[in-house]
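Example 4.3 (complexes with small molecules)
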Amino acid sequence: MKNTETFEQLESNVRMYCRDVPLVFDTAVGSKIHAEDGREYLDFFAGAGALNYGHNDPRMRDALVEYLSANGVTHGLDLHTSMKRHFLESIKRDLFEPRGWDYKVQFTGPTGADAVEAALKLARKATGRSKIVSFYGAYHGMTAGALAVSGSRTRRVAGLSSDVIFIPYEDGPYGEFDGIAFLDRLARDQGSGSELPAAVIVESVQIQAGVYAASNDWLQQLRKWTQDNGVILICDEIQAGCGRAGDFFGFERSGIQPDLVTCAKSISGFGLPMAIVLIRSQLDVWQPGDHTGTFRGNQLAFLTAQIALSYWRNEEFLKLLSNNIAAMERAVAGFAEIPGIAAGRCRGMIAGVDFGRGNAALAKDAQQRALQAGVLVERCGPNGEVIKLMPPINTPTDQLEQGLKVIGESVAAALAK
Ligand SMILES: Cc1ncc(COP(=O)(O)O)c(C=O)c1O
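Answer. The structure with pyridoxal-5'-phosphate bound is encoded below.
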């Protein structure tokens, strides 16, 4: 029997990532994942950003085993638990206090998409307005509200909200755009046909679009426009956050303070499901139960998240991260020079190697060559023409460099064909 036959027979056609990776995985540690074929792969896919600290981080794993062995509560709805208290105190100590933030934490359903739903709903409730500004190329999830603010035409289905104004992002596959001037015009021009939006939802790095990072200046102007016009700024940090773009939050280097921040994926640090919205305190206009759900109290995720947050106080971790960022930037600058590559883009620990419009087959060929050579990577971009490099941010630098070398060779081989 082919080792993927069970999945082909029984799993819905909707499955996706596995189609580019015809392997069956069984164990994983750090940046390495082992498959039933007996080989070990460097995991530069990292659960699409849910494994920023790698697989089975030993401190987190041991803490989980100890907690379960002591019969710690595992599911708690939104009841008070000792573990949730510890987690909230960690968020205050590690995220809010160092930044001087006065925010509340909302626990949503465990996927990023539900955090986005909650943020959109809250912005509409707080302002009494309905429109949302989003950007071409945006990806915010697959539930109806999140999909309505996502740019991909091919993923859209009939019946999504039309209360969304899409404008091009600062940069993208079709070039740069002055979205701030557009928003200014929209606010001032009585003929715009549109009332002011409730919110602007933005990613500090549009990763699914092909890894386009917003500049500090653009984010600052967007913050100013939203502030001047009483519009809520939602930063969706589900993929770019938790260290992926180099700082804990991807928008951090711009110095802006959003009104709402969505986090999921790597917030638990261990790949356990958890999503939250950070809410500027005066915007916390929810009434009890306005956005509820059964799985909002994943105590195991609360436990591992505290350990993940503590790494941001650990000098050794920060040094490794800074060395890794330098290695990524160096490698991507080299990839950009390979004849036939349209561009290489890197922000912190996320990078895209862009084969250019119409060249998804070449990107796929490079991805398959990398897999053969032992490195697992995903593709992104409007049609999968960008190789997306997303290693765990704490990958030992020698492993990172080894994986990047394989990527470079695979890209060159695909183009030389
Ligand atoms: C920026 C962003 N927002 C939201 C989501 C949706 O998160 P989830 O897949 O956990 O629902 C994703 C997922 O890739 C994302 O990248």
